[in-house]
Amino acid sequence: MTDRIQAPNRELRSLNAEEVESTLAEWGHKSYRVTQLLGWLYKKRASSIDEMSDLPQELREQLAGSFLLKPLELVKEQRSRDGTVKFLWRLADGELIESVLIPASVGREGNRSDRHTICVSSQVGCAYGCKFCASGLMGYKRNLDASEIVDQVLAVERWHLASGGELAKPQGGLVNNIVMMGMGEPLANYDNLIRALEIFNSSWGLNIGARKITVSTSGLAPQIRRLAEMPQQYHLAISLHGATDDVRDKIMPINRKYPLEELISACEAYQQAKGRMIWVEYILIDDVNTGPEQVEALSGLAKRLQCKVNLIPYNPVDGIELKRPSDETVGRFRDALHRKGVRVTVRIEKGTDIDAACGQLRLKSEKKTAVTQVVGQAG
Ligand code: SF4
């Protein structure tokens, strides 16, 4: 029987510093090689092991024999009139994911001029099936590993360089604000998420401050409590979208598992542990969650959490019947909250001309592929 040579299947960028250190020590290399290798991965943003010219040939061969370094492949980019850019990436196994770059010029009011934000995906599809969401419509395929989460940021930087680099670059990398708000429920991919956040945040990694990293969740209460136990001051945003259990049950199935009281008390635990304000995101959907009883309940929750509420008028998705409320309804909802003393802002979704709500680009691309396949079979 012949011995099979195992092809490497672990991404080099899914290792943390301790694992890089122990791997190199096991292979008998000096400890300064660890700093060199991490420098190639995260400071020089290497796309291949061959580029790492000051590493000895033997080490490069060992790395190539044991690990992959396969950057995400750009399938499509869409540029919005407001400057937002949406990307569709292909992973090594052919699956598609999305990221969105929101340059400083189109960021939230009050952004510093050098703050570029990237909205990062954590899963291929999503299992949680929120009724308004394009990612939920596709169902769940798999978790992303840490390298696939991290490489979305590096891939946007590569794209920026290749496309002429017109954005002002802050110190370090191009992207200095990360929101885990793309496809998937980040806290459902907890271990890979934590590892990716470590790479974003560490001085040996991308060195992005924890306060510039936001984890957005649909409400996985036990994982919020786990995150609260971590020392890092990651920012937490809750996708609430309903202020009573009956409304939330209708549009977010996760609420049946972790009803509002459980979610809100996990948020309180997070706040107590971090001493930081939580953001509540609330997508306004016509005739679903815009009634006065929601104003009443939402203001109660907001006061309890002392949080800021971000209202987002729904951006309609092909294949989903839900509608965006009129500007008048949005204004009325905002003013009613305001009168009750809630700090509230209305965020107009960026890139509405380019399918910017997460999952839409992939959804369209997969539908197109499916149509092509059907036509191909028919032909
Ligand atoms: S809103 Fe978030 S949790 Fe809900 S289906 Fe979409 S990606 Fe999943």
DSSP strand count: 14
Categorize the overall geometry.
elongated
CATH class of the largest domain, named Alpha Beta
CATH architecture of the largest domain: Alpha-Beta Barrel
Under CATH, the topology of the largest domain is which? TIM Barrel
Work out the helix count.
Answer: 13
Helix and strand run: EHHHEEEEEEHEHEHEHEHHHEHEHEH
Please report the distance between the alpha carbons of the first and last residues. Answer: 45 Å
Number of domains: 2
Helix content: 25-40%
Mean pLDDT comes to 88
Classify the oligomer: single chain
**What percent of residues are in strands?**
15-25%
Q: CATH superfamily name of the largest domain?
A: Aldolase class I
Task: Please identify the structural class as seen in this structure.
Answer: alpha/beta
Task: Tell me about the largest β-sheet.
Answer: 10 strands, mixed
Provide the spatial order of strands within the biggest beta sheet: 3-4-5-6-9-10-11-12-13-14
